[in-house]
Amino acid sequence: MDKIAPENVRTLALVGHGGTGKTSLTEAMLFDTGGITRMGKVDDGTAHTDYDPDEIHRRISINAVPITATWRETELNVVDCPGYVDFLPEVQTCLQDMDAAILVANAVHANEAQNAKVWSFCSQLELPAACFLSKMDKENADFEKAIGELKADLEGNLVPIAVPIGAAGTFKGYVNLLTMKSHVFTDDSGKSKEGPIDSSMETVVQKYREALVEAAAAADDALTEKYLEGDELTAEEIDRGIRIGVLARKLVPVVPGSGTRNIGVQLLMDVIVKFLPSPVDRTPAVPLAGKEEKVFLKADGSEELCGRVFKVLTEAHVGELFLVRMYSGTLTPGSAIVNTTRDEKEKIGPIMRLKGKERVEAQSLSAGQIGALLKVKGLHWSDTIASDKRPARFPDRKKPDTYLSVALRPQTAQDTERLSTALAKLRAEDPFIHTENNEVTHEFVVSGTGELHVDTFVRRLKDRYNVNCEVAKPKIPYRETIRGRAEGQGKHKKQSGGHGQYGDCWLRLEPLPTGTGFEFEDAIVGGKIPNRFIPAVEKGVREAMVRGILAGFGMTDFRCTVYEGSYHAVDSSEMAFKTAASKGFKLVARLAKPVLMEPVMTVEVSVPEANMGDIMGDLNSRRGRILGMEPDGKRQIIKAQVPLAELYKYIISLRSMTGGRGEFTMTLSHYEEVPATVADAVVKESGFGAQEDEE
Length: 695
Known about the structure:
Elements: E1 9-15, H1 22-32, H2 53-58, E2 65-71, E3 74-80, H3 88-95, E4 100-106, H4 113-125, E5 129-134, H5 143-153, E6 158-160, E7 162-165, E8 173-176, E9 181-185, E10 192-195, H6 202-218, H7 221-228, H8 235-247, E11 252-256, H9 265-275, E12 285-287, E13 294-296, E14 306-315, E15 319-328, E16 330-331, E17 336-339, E18 344-347, E19 351-355, E20 358-362, E21 365-366, E22 370-374, E23 384-386, E24 404-410, H10 413-429, E25 434-438, E26 443-448, H11 451-465, E27 469-472, E28 479-482, E29 486-494, E30 501-511, E31 518-522, H12 534-545, E32 558-566, H13 574-591, E33 594-608, H14 612-621, E34 625-632, E35 635-643, H15 650-658, E36 663-673, H16 676-686, H17 688-694
Parallel strand pairs: 1-3, 1-4, 4-5, 5-11, 6-11, 31-32
Antiparallel strand pairs: 2-3, 7-8, 8-9, 9-10, 12-13, 14-15, 14-23, 15-22, 16-21, 17-18, 17-23, 19-20, 19-22, 24-26, 24-27, 25-26, 28-33, 29-30, 30-32, 33-35, 33-36, 34-35
């Protein structure tokens, strides 16, 4: 289905903690809408949206992958999002291009950490949402307990649309609170036997039915008045009230079920069609490229086109697939468009509609729809595509902080050669990875949002591009400086036939305030060193200070003064004075009380109040200094200063101590002297003294 009225389109994401059943729910939706003839399974690697080798290997979702399906004459564009904490930035950016969200929560443990996080994303974006309470068939599943946990954890009026029949091993269906009919399932076909409500459930059903009707009435003034006067609301009025409440984010309908057993899935799709917004209900205002003026992107196929790339996938033998959500207009193969993010003209190649790993070529892509664009070389993640008549441009997305870094060391020269090409391709697919050549430590450093994120990146380097790298702890970018004043001679004299080499200079070193850097002063009088050789003296000092004298780290925050010296009319040269200055610097610096300096980070840790004690104790054990605390809703923010050397893999410890609920940010505060015991260990590990002796 290519052309469809935008009123009959729903574009949404499945979000929630990892392992709650989002992918299994997606499989059931595909099956029930006729998109597939057999449901795949995550555990055996046959799921349609978890087809990446890393996803099959780890049995978790890593990529946000869309499906397109049709239900009740409505097109559903559903994105199966990852739930593992390392990949939440992908969820956050994906939600920015959705009209709604389905929170998939576990009926056994509904208060899992990432549910609250993704819910906060939805709140920030003011996205209407529904909830699928999954895994009702699992041991210890508890409907009422789960609803209570969700209400306590999330901001939102969660109102069940159905009540489960049984739980765990006895779970077999639900009572629809809208129709007041029971639905019993005997297999995973999605088909149920409709019947009356069992007498044993009448009390609980009536309780939830009254809560649903009350919530529907509260969403609309006219309905509220009728309800308070004691008049019964009609089925149409209840539906209208629910939809008004959902669109205003005053009501979150909840459907109990099981994706693997295909129970509650069709009811959820009914909820999506009846109550969640279409593109017509949400009209974003977007600036024109290079201007402050904004235009409203009306969901109309006849409008000027505008869309945004929310994901890039790379596949062997296919290349890059640019997943785009259209906001207005109609895109067709061969369309001439403007990439307003980069101010470049492009021509659209083939357009595909996706059902996970399956692709169907499409003749067009209209407002609200999601599709994949192929063979468009100039596109990148987050780019806006538009017509030149209305060059709208979405603001740049903010990339998340990275929390864990590793050093990559290619194992062979061939690996080094292949690395740059591989990096360019992987960074296009994963914009949340950060890479750099550290100029201080001379290492290639990869940073990500967590250990799994970085591990996945390294694994893809090897599996896709045959780049083998050793993964190591990154070196800390220490610095060296001096605490005392000293002076001495640097002399270079060499005679080996013909012209010799002669340079003689006396240097004085003295400390400067932290952050000052390096200063060089010429105090020579009487021409004891000719002016033409002074730059060579400075160059010799600068080259020597780059390697320091303790552990091979650059020296800073000191003044070097050349105040005495001598020269030879024939044998002196720039090279001779540069060598003499280098020797002199190394000699005098050792006399000037050299010390090692380490980077200290300002850290802000956000945790639930219950974890405060553990976090503060852990920060103290990392040589941290607590600066203060401040409340943030149900959480506390701890501010501290901690040496960078103590923060390697801190995110792993933090998530472990807080059950995945802890977050932190860090920025460089300053450099300060390393404690003697720590400095001794760093110097010993560097082996720098031995190297200098050999030289």
